[in-house]
Amino acid sequence: MTEARMPGFSRCNNATLRRAARSLGRFYDDAVAPSGLKGTQFGLLFQIHVSSEPAMGTIAEALIMDLSALGHTLKPLIRDGYIETFADKEDRRVKRVRLTPQGEVKLDEAIKLWSVAQQQFEDKVGAEQAAKLRAALDAVADLNLEMPTAAPSN
Amino acid sequence: MTEARMPGFSRCNNATLRRAARSLGRFYDDAVAPSGLKGTQFGLLFQIHVSSEPAMGTIAEALIMDLSALGHTLKPLIRDGYIETFADKEDRRVKRVRLTPQGEVKLDEAIKLWSVAQQQFEDKVGAEQAAKLRAALDAVADLNLEMPTAAPSN
DNA sequence: CGGCAAAAGTGGCATATGCCACTAATTGAA
DNA sequence: TTCAATTAGTGGCATATGCCACTTTTGCCG
After folding, report:
1. How many CB atoms lie within 10 A of CB B50?
2. In the predicted model, is pLDDT for residue B6 greater than 60?
3. Is the CB of residue B99 less than 8 Å from the CB of residue B52?
4. Which of A74, A121, B47, B98 is the most exposed place for a label (fewest CB within 10 A)?
5. Is residue B136 a contact partner of residue A134, using CB atoms and an 8 Å limit?
6. How far apart are CA A127 and CA B14, in angstroms?
7. What is residue A147's predicted lDDT score, i.e. its pLDDT?
8. Mutate which: A23, A97, A143, vs B, most B CBs within 10 A
9. For residue range B87-116, what is the model confidence (pLDDT) as tens digits?
10. Residue B84 β-bridge partners
């Protein structure tokens, strides 16, 4: 039946990673859905929450995401009143982000939901294994891979 | 520096997975870019290539992706003439997919580019480690996690 | 055979992400 | 001080993904 997924295929690290991301993403999405948030939005709110009024660029860097992509993703959250932005006093080019009171409330609500999914996941794969997997994923994410195209400047 | 990424944050398996996916995704995207394909499109063409004129549902299941999402993703590839669809003789509800001759050519071209990225990745993390990571990811993807929300029908 | 439930896709709508071109604010010289 | 180069975001465009509602086929049952 699942022969369609030839063993030779899953050799692509990227495809395998995306496949797992889709799968796990749906699980966490379902979990936090009652809050009205998506898994990604929850993660974003959390990231902002644990940072100190981070600049957009700082968030983008931490999450390894394109700055403009972050901007787009932030819009629905601003629209819904969960976060707000304000210019940095020192450098007016910099836009900082923070949760609104409603955002804090919503985050607390979502954390409870998230915990259930997180716990269930850890129960299934084991906290130890989960930690190892996260470590491996962080290592991959921080590899800083680059195609030779852009030859090193020096 | 990267203090913005509090250790407490990466505890979310989903967020960690997505972050890694964004990172690796860009790497592979850059690699196959010269072919005009995205990493996901390459993966899709490959999946179709190694299958036998698979039905859309079959592909979606193998890749653990929403059927409608697959349909949307397929459009650009059909528009560009890399794949074509046709109704199944037995069951007219089923729509099968196959590569066009141009699609085969494009895939061959992309495979060469992909190989470079794949090789570079394996060189960095080690073929052994990469294989283990993929296995772990496949295991996670196939966990079949589900939020209790949908209480068993019986 | 008629009709209803299940299966397979489609289309619409919304978020997630990226890249590129462009604007505003800074910084670093000359 | 003035202007070119750099930095931080924005807006537009395109793909990636999901969910939901709806249509077409099937399959099955009385």
Report:
1. 15
2. no
3. no
4. B98
5. no
6. 14
7. 75
8. A23
9. 999 999 999 999 999 999 999 999 999 999
10. B98
Q: Does B4 contact A61 at a Cβ distance shorter than 8 Å?
A: yes
CB half-sphere exposure, A128, CA atoms < 13 A:
0
Minimum-distance CB partner of A124 among B22, B58, B143? B143
Tokens of A45: 């709110």
Q: What does the pLDDT look like over A109-142, one tens digit per residue? A: 999 999 999 999 999 999 999 999 999 999 999 9
Q: Say if the Cβ atoms of B134 and A11 lie within 8 Å.
A: yes
Placement of tokens 């989960």 in the chain? A130
- Copy the structure tokens of residue B45: 């063409």
Q: Go through the domains of chain B in sequence order and give each one's CATH number.
A: 12-140 (1.10.10.10)
Q: What is the DSSP string of chain B?
A: -GGGS-TTGGG-HHHHHHHHHHHHHHHHHHHHGGGT--HHHHHHHHHHHHSSS-BHHHHHHHTT--HHHHHHHHHHHHHTTSEEEEE-SS-TT-EEEEE-HHHHHHHHHHHHHHHHHHHHHHHHH-HHHHHHHHHHHHHHHTT----TTS----
Contact flag A24-B138 (C-beta cutoff 8 Å)? no
The per-residue pLDDT for B145 is 86
Q: Measured from the CB, is B69 under 7 Å from any atom of strand D?
A: yes
